[in-house]
Design brief:
The protein is mainly α. It is about 85% helix and about 0% strand.
């Protein structure tokens, strides 16, 4: 039973339908043969019935023609011909026997009665025997008709059996189609819909080994192939998400799936390249940030030196203003002394000597101021150079160094402004030195004039007036220098604050680059 079931399971759908169709064709052929034979017999036996009817009517016509004294030869020949004819056409049933009886009765009795009638003219026996013949021919016709009716019923039965057989075969083919094709395809459609919705782990089950079974095997193979590709892709993405951008799967992709493997490799290589680049950029940002921090520290130290220098400059300027005030006092005393020249020429000369000493102190203080201004100019130049280096390092840092570029630009502007203010101070100091030189010259001339004061007191008064005016000019110049030094101190203070901000930002940038390097370091981009 199991072997039979196994063989039945191995039969393909096409073979089953082919077997069923062969049976249908064989049945059609057999029925067609039966119908052809039946129709042949039906037409033949129908002709026999007609011939029997002709014999029945012809025999009565012969008797009537004989009684009527007419020529009966033609009718008699027709009866004999038809009797001989139907003898060869029907050999089934009761008809052959009844035909032989009719023929024997016709030849032995009727023909004899006709001869007797022609001799005697008495047709009583002829009429009686003709009645018997009529009954016998009528029975012969009925036997022939019964056989024809049987053949007709047989034809109807064959047609009915053919129709039923065709219905059965169609039903059988329909059942085979539904069970072997429609239902498996419907189940397969459900499985394919599940697969289209992402359910790939469910196996397509079909036990038969027919064409649908082969289709199930192909679809199962395709399902397992797609599932293996999806699992490999998921594994690749999981590995990359875990930071490993180097490891590759050993699975070989084929056909159109090869493009997926190529794209995965391209994505892995692109990520690896980008993370390497990010790591290099992080190193570069860290280097630039450290350089900017170093420059910021130098700027801050330079600003502190500038602050100290400017404060020293202010102290010198205050000292110069105090000395200038003393000069004014000495000049005023000299003026008073000149009013009493005759009483205290020696005292006036001493005051003038003090004035000369004060002028020397002013010259010395001015020269020190010049040295300080020169130092400020050097610091300003160094600040400008540091701001330029900071701009270059900020540009190398890229987007992360944009803030440093703005800070460096502001520092450069402040350095330029400091340089301008320093030049103005230097110019004012040069003017002050010129004035002091002229004052010294005037004081010397005044000293010489004191030697000749007895001769020209008015000249001394004029020189003292000029000296007084020159002292006022020097005082005003020193006041301007003091105000400019205060402005430079404000600029230097701003530079110091900006340098501190720059150092703080560079420290944050170093931390950011370190965090970026740590994040990038989590990804494996090269083989160990």
């Amino acid at each position: 039973m199991s072997k039979k079931a196994g063989k039945r399971a191995d039969i393909t759908i096409a073979a089953s339908i082919k077997q069923s169709l062969q049976k249908v064709f064989f049945l059609i052929f057999a029925v067609a043969v039966l119908i052809a034979v039946s129709l042949t017999m039906f037409s033949r036996y129908t002709g026999v019935v007609n011939s029997a009817g002709i014999v029945r009517g012809g025999s009565q016509r012969v008797i009537k023609q004989v009684i009527a004294r007419a020529d009966e030869e033609k009718a008699l020949t027709a009866v004999d011909t038809n009797l001989a004819k139907i003898k060869q056409q029907m050999r089934l049933g009761k008809f052959p026997k009844s035909r032989d009886e009719v023929e024997a009765y016709w030849n032995s009795t009727i023909k004899k009665d006709i001869e007797e009638f022609k001799k005697t003219g008495d047709f009583t026996v002829l009429l009686e025997d003709s009645e018997t013949l009529f009954q016998m021919t009528n029975q012969m016709v009925n036997h022939a008709q019964e056989l024809v009716d049987v053949i007709a019923v047989g034809l109807y039965v064959i047609l009915a059996i053919f129709v039923l057989a065709c219905f059965y075969m169609i039903r059988l083919v329909s059942i085979i189609f539904v069970n072997s094709v429609a239902n498996p395809i419907k189940e397969l459609e459900k499985n394919l819909n599940d697969m289209a919705e992402g359910v790939l782990s469910q196996e397509f089950v079909y036990e038969k080994k027919d064409e649908i079974g082969k289709l199930y095997e192909i679809l199962n193979h395709m399902r397992l192939g797609i599932l293996s590709y999806i699992r490999d892709i998921d594994n690749n993405l999981t590995v990359m998400a875990g930071g490993d951008l180097v490891s590759k799967s050993d699975m070989k992709y084929v056909g159109d799936y090869l493009h997926i493997q190529e794209n995965l490799t391209h994505i892995r290589n692109s990520f690896s390249t980008e993370f390497k680049h990010m790591d290099e950029q992080a190193d570069q940002v860290a280097i630039s940030a450290r350089e900017v921090a170093k420059i910021s520290k130098n700027l801050e130290e330079g600003a502190m030196q500038q602050t100290d220098s400017i404060r020293t400059l202010q102290e010198k300027i205050n000292t110069t203003l105090e000395e200038n005030t003393k000069v004014d006092t000495y000049v005023e005393e000299a003026r008073k002394s000149s009013d009493d020249t005759s009483q205290s020429v020696e005292q006036t000369r001493q005051q003038m000597n003090k004035a000369v000493e004060a002028m020397k102190d002013i010259i010395q203080a001015s020269q020190e101021i010049q040295n300080i201004v020169k130092a400020l100019d050097d610091i300003t130049s160094e600040t400008s150079l540091l701001s330029l280096n900071a701009s270059i390092e900020a540009a190398r840092a890229g987007e992360a160094g944009r803030g440093f570029a703005i800070v460096a630009e502001n520092v450069s502007k402040l350095a330029v402004e400091s340089s301008k203010q320093t030049d103005i101070i230097a110019q004012l100091i040069d003017n002050a030195l010129e004035c002091v030189g002229r004052g010294t010259k005037i004081v010397n001339e005044a000293a010489e004039s004191l030697n000749r004061i007895s001769d020209n007191t008015q000249i001394v008064d004029e020189i003292i007036s000029r000296l007084n005016e020159q002292s006022k000019v020097e005082h005003e110049l020193m006041e301007e220098i003091n105000e400019l030094s205060i402005s430079i101190l404000d600029v230097v203070t701003d530079n110091s604050a900006i340098s501190e901000e720059c150092a703080s930002s560079s420290s944050e940038l170093i931390d950011y680059s370190g965090n970026l390097k740590d994040s990038v370091g989590k990804f494996i981009t090269t083989h160990s």
